[in-house]
Amino acid sequence: MFTTGSVATIPCREWPGTLPRRYNRPVDFPRALRELRTRRHLSQLDLALRAGTTQRHLSFIESRRSDPGRNMVVRLAEALELSLRERNELLLAAGYAPAYPESSLDDQALAPVRAAIDHILRGHLPYPALVVDGAGDLIAANTAFDLITEGAAAELVGPGRNIYRLALHPEGLAPRIRNLAEWARHILARLGHLEELHAELVGYVPELERCAGLLGFAVPLRLQSSYGELNLMTTVTTFATAVDVTLSELKLEAFLPADPATAGALTAAARAAASAEAGQAPGNM
C-alpha cells in the first residue's frame, strides 16, 4: 500500500476532519490540455500514443474541432500523469463530473488508513515521524516529533499548522537549523505547486547561494536540540495506489539518524518522555 516513509500518534477518534478543497475555477479545456502537454515536453503524437488515440483526434480536440468524451479525458489525464486532483480539474474543465472522490480524513471509509498510519508512527519511535496533506499542513505526528519542534512558537505547531512554515519561519525551527540555507533550498524545491507559500517562505531565509558542488548523498537536517545537535535524514512515503484525492495527497515523512550520536540522542529523549508520561499516570500521582 505504501511506497517509502512514515507518520502519527493521534488516536483515530481525534483525527481532524478535512473539508474538500475547492477546485480551481472552470478553465478552457483545449487550452488547459495544450498547456499541460507542453509543460511536460510532449508532442501531440507522444500524448496521442500514450492515451491510445491518434494525433489527428488530439489535434481536433486542442483546436476545438472535436469534444472529447469522458473516457478520453480520463485517458489523457492518466497519460499526462496528473495527480487525482488535477484529473478531477481536467474533467470539470471538459464539462464532466469528477471521477475521484475526496473523503474527509475522519470518514469511516478511511478508518483502515488511519489505523495503518498510527501503526507506522508508533513503530517509527524513537525517531520522529509525521503525516501531512498536499499543502504541507500537519495531520498527525508521533511523540518523538516534540524534540524537533521544541522552542517553536505555539501558533506554528500542531495539527493544521504548515510544516514548511514551521521549518523556515524565524519563530519556528529556523534559529536552530545549523545548515539553514541548504535546508531551505531543499524545502523550497518541494513547493512549486504552492506559489503563495513559496513566496512567503523565500522572505524568511538567507540568500540562497548557488551550490558549488554536491551536498552528499542526501541533504541532512542539522538541528540544535536540548539533547545536542541532531543530524537527520528524511524519507517520504505515499499511498501508491490511492483512488481517493485525500489519500493520494497524504505524505508520511520520517526522520532518521545520520550518525550514532543522533541515534543515541533520540533514544534518550524517547526514554525521558516515556518516564515522564509514566510518572503522570494516575497510579503514580
Would you mind describing this structure in some detail?
It holds the Pfam family HTH_3. GO terms for molecular function: DNA binding. Residues 33-87 form the HTH cro/C1-type domain. By secondary structure, the chain is an alpha+beta fold. The chain folds into two domains: 12-16 and 105-284, Beta-Lactamase (2-Layer Sandwich), CATH 3.30.450; 29-93, 434 Repressor (Amino-terminal Domain) (Orthogonal Bundle), CATH 1.10.260.40. The protein contains twelve helices and five strands. It has helices spanning 29-39, 44-51, 55-62, 70-79, 84-93, 111-124, 145-149, 163-168, 180-188, 195-202, 245-249, 260-279; strands at residues 129-132, 138-141, 221-225, 228-237, 251-257. A five-stranded antiparallel beta sheet has the order 2-1-5-4-3. Strand 3 and strand 4 form a beta hairpin. The longest helix has 20 residues, at 260-279. The protein is elongated. It starts with 28 loop residues before the first helix and ends in a 6-residue tail after the last helix. The model is unreliable at 1-15 and 212-216 (pLDDT under 50).
